[in-house]
Amino acid sequence: MRLKFLSIYMREARLKAGVDPKEVAKLLGRDTTRVTKMERGREGLTPGDAKMLLDRYDVHTEEQKADIVELARTRSQRGRWLGHRATVPMEQRPYYDFEVDSNLIQHYGVEMVPGLLQTEAYMRAMLERSARVDPASIDDVVATRLERQEVIFRQRPAEVGFVLSESCLRRIFGGNAVMHAQMVHLDAVAKRSNVRLQILPFDSMGGGNTFGFTMLRIPAPTSAPPLEMVYVENLHDADYLDGLPEVADYGRLWSRLTADALGLEQSRRFIKGVARQYA
């Protein structure tokens, strides 16, 4: 995961500085193909080379530069990544890049329908009530979120699994008409062969989980094992976990949630029943 973060940060810094990949190749003594591999997380970068490139890219913030050089030094290590490190310099951009590369996404949602399943009207109603979003940027946030949904609908889509607490269906954003359309959309997406959508009702014997999370599996470019990670977000921070024990813990939690939730057909009938109530 550190190698992936390193590639994302170096690519973004280069693009922001307007530096051509050919110049980077010359500075590193490599050809442009290897620069492309480095910026896609397929090849590493030494701490010295990382610092040299950051100086060329005019990255002046010493804390930011130190964090990225540390990524280059520890790129082969696994562990727990905290949001203040993961958000240098792009906040949630690393997660979005991971999401695009994933071939398996498993999400447990509480309180609201997750972004990958939201209609545009639901998005706008929710964002208007959000303390984290500047009203002037809502159009950009909506456009980004709609673009992210292509991971489900593209030619070679990811396999996606959702377990949604009943609270996701009951928390009203935008009024009954918006919620009815959102339920209809959930039912339509649930019919796709690459989607497994389950509802965890309030009266489930197993109970729920008080926080949402997302598990991602990103295939490796070679015969190496895929990258498996967990993303957990809160108001000011985000945790990125790729340690084997932590990923295994969340895998067991996911198994319990899917076992406690309604089956696929039961879940669709449940969603249709809620849709009728909003209608």
Characterize the structure shown:
The chain is about 50% helix and about 15% strand. The chain is an alpha/beta fold and about 280 residues long. The chain has two domains: about 1-75, Orthogonal Bundle (434 Repressor (Amino-terminal Domain)); about 95-120 and about 145-279, Endonuclease, Chain A (2-Layer Sandwich). Helix 2 (about 20-30) packs across helix 3 (about 30-40), helix 4 packs antiparallel against helix 5 (about 60-75) and helix 8 (about 120-130) crosses helix 9 (about 140-150). InterPro entries: Cro/C1-type_HTH, DUF5753, Lambda_DNA-bd_dom_sf. It holds the Pfam family HTH_31. GO terms for molecular function: DNA binding. It comes from Saccharothrix tamanrassetensis.
In terms of topology, how is this protein built?
Layout: H1 2-17, H2 21-28, H3 32-39, H4 47-56, H5 62-73, E1 80-81, H6 83-86, H7 93-101, E2 104-109, H8 120-128, H9 138-148, H10 150-153, E3 159-165, H11 166-170, H12 176-190, E4 195-200, E5 213-218, E6 227-233, E7 238-241, H13 244-260, H14 264-278
Parallel strand pairs: 2-3, 3-4
Antiparallel strand pairs: 1-7, 2-5, 5-6, 6-7
Helix pairs in contact: 1-4, 2-3, 4-5, 8-9, 12-14
Short description:
This protein is of the alpha/beta class and 279 residues long.
CATH architecture of the largest domain: 2-Layer Sandwich
Order of helices and strands: HHHHHEHHEHHHEHHEEEEHH
Q: CATH-wise, what's the superfamily of the largest domain?
A: Endonuclease Chain A
Number of domains: 2
- CATH topology of the largest domain, by name, is Endonuclease, Chain A
The residue-averaged pLDDT reads 86
Helix fraction, binned, reads: 40-55%
Main beta sheet strand tally, sense and closure: 7 strands, mixed
User: What is the number of helices?
Assistant: 14
How far apart the termini lie comes to: 45 Å
Q: Class of the largest domain in CATH?
A: Alpha Beta
The backbone outline, from C-alpha atoms, is elongated
pLDDT < 50 stretches: 80-91
Number of strands: 7
Percent strand equals: 5-15%
Query: What structural class is derived from the secondary structure elements?
Result: alpha/beta
Alpha carbon gyration radius: 21 Å
GO molecular function, one term: DNA binding
Protein name: HTH cro/C1-type domain-containing protein
Domain HTH cro/C1-type: 10-64
InterPro entries: Cro/C1-type_HTH, DUF5753, Lambda_DNA-bd_dom_sf
